[in-house]
Amino acid sequence: MLKIKSSILVFISIVGMLFILNCSNKNIVNKATMDHADKLKEDVDILFKSIEEIHPNIFANISEEDLKEEILKIKKSISDTTDILDFYLLVNPLVVKLKDGHTSMGVPFGHLKKISNFDKNSILMFPFEIEIKNRDSSIVITKNYTKENIPLNSKIVSINDVESKKIVNKMLLQAQGERTFFKFEVLSYRFTYLLYSLFRDREFKIKYIYEDSIYEKTLKGISFKKRFEKTKNLKRVNNKVFYTLEIDTLNSIATIDFRRFNNLNKFKLFLDSTFTEIKKLNIKNLIIDVRNNGGGNSQLGDEFFQYISKVPFRQFSKTIVKVRNKGTKTYSSKNLIELRENPLRFNGNIYLLQSHYTFSSAAGFTWAFKYFKMGTIIGEETGGLAVCFGDIISEKLPNTDLWYYVSFKKFYQYGTTDEDTHGTIPDYEVPSKKALDFALELIKRRGE
Question: Which of 27, 352, 393, 447 is the most buried (most CB within 10 A)?
Fold first, then answer.
């Protein structure tokens, strides 16, 4: 009898434990049985919950009510046939509406690569590099990967009977940034991936204009792998070379091509050797080119200013930092950074080249350069604003494996207020591609 009671007790204990385990793991069980659509909807909730927790002010450019309404619309549009690209195209426009160039979703490049690895001909992509012109939204060919004789600088009128302007307007919904001209810079680089994601075409009938004549040709796309390999060679930033020096001794001009605010220690060595050479050759004119600089670590800017500024300086007067789920902290300082003793400090003429692509720390660098009157600025208004969100936290959605990036700081350049909703304005406004030639001509005129 005792034996039977013991067995009953053991059985009851096991059942009780299973019940407790089942209750404690209820969410895990439910997640394991979630269908495809539910998992995608869960990622939508996770994404915007995370952005709200991390971002200093998610509602700076969209109301809480509108955001919730947009999230509901997205979730209603998701079904079991929604793939990763569809998900990205549904969700990304809402992230774009936050109007923060640093807060963004990563392009589903890995997803496309997986499909391509499985079948190299499953994805065929647009076989051109292009540039979208800010003045009229036109699409211009800058690189031709086909054997067809289609000249560079040809203006595309339509692709597969869809007008270029309609394509650009559709893509603008997918491009992060505060200003439209910066979005065009983003789209020029991402055009091929977005064109495939939006239309999934494998063949391209293009109508284009060259020298006032209209032509039409139908071309097959190129494989994803080939297109990616070609794009790697056209990056604005070489992964190993962030800053280079060229010296024209005949005209007494040194040019620093500065493409990334990266690796402070290496940059210090670069500056020391660069300005040692400039002093040794008694160079009179310095050109600093940040037209292809998308930012990085702003400490490199402070180090650079120690070689070119004639007065104490500061890049930021105020920074608001969001501590996740704990509110914000504000750090303010108007105390300028004093100049240290530096026998290599440059005392000649300085010209700074900038573009719509100049962003983040690079834009902050140009603002301080202008505010403290270090030299002449040539080019276009910067894509980065005088007051902006920045410094990001990167996270990955659990179901789609898509990365997303969220600003957790708000920066105020020195001397700015919330009214300064613009980038650094150049002293001479010229198209960025002509900025270097303009600077060289200006140096020549001033030297005469």
Answer: 352
With bands split at pLDDT 50, 70 and 90, how would you rate the model's confidence at 20?
very low
Whether residue 436 sits in one domain with residue 291: yes
In a domain? residue 199: yes
Extended beta strands in 236-315, E state = 243-248, 253-258, 285-289
Instruction: Assess contact for 198 and 175: CB atoms under 8 A.
Output: no
Each residue's pLDDT tens digit, 94-141: 999 999 999 999 988 887 777 777 666 778 999 999 999 988 999 999
Those residues with Cβ within 8 angstroms of residue 91's Cβ, 6 or more apart along the chain or in another chain: 44, 47, 74, 105
**Are 191 and 269 in a shared domain?**
no
Given a contact cutoff of 8 angstroms between Cβ atoms, the answer to whether 435 and 341 are in contact is no
Task: Report residue 38: phi and psi, to 5°.
Answer: -65, -35
Final residue in a domain of this structure, among 176, 199, 232? 232
Residue 180 lies in a domain: yes
- The pLDDT assigned to 239 comes to 58
Verify that 226 and 265 share a domain, yes or no.
no
Q: Residue 282's pLDDT is what?
A: 97
pLDDT band at 23 (very low <50, low <70, confident <90, very high): very low
Q: 211 with 345, same domain?
A: no
Average pLDDT across the chain, whole number: 90
Rounded to 5 degrees, what angle do the CA atoms 127, 358, 154 make?
A: 30
CB within 8 A of 300, min separation 6: which ones?
Answer: 261, 262, 264, 267, 361
Q: Does 422 share its domain with 274?
A: yes
1-10, 124-133, 214-223: which has the minimum mean pLDDT?
1-10
In 295-373, the DSSP E strands lie at: 316-323, 327-332, 349-354
| 261 and 394 within one domain | yes
Query: Beta strand pairing status for 376-379 and 428-429?
Result: parallel
Task: Examine the domain organization and report whether 226 and 248 are in the same domain.
Answer: no
Residues forming a β-bridge with 296:
261
In this structure, is the dihedral angle defined by the CA atoms of residues 68, 70, 76 and 81, taken in order, positive or negative?
negative
Residues 257 and 387 occupy one common structural domain = yes
Pairing of strands 285-289, 222-223: unpaired
Q: Of 200, 232, 264, which residue is a domain's last?
A: 232
Residues 6+ away with beta carbon under 8 Å from 248: 254, 255
Residue predicted with more confidence, 82 or 33: 82
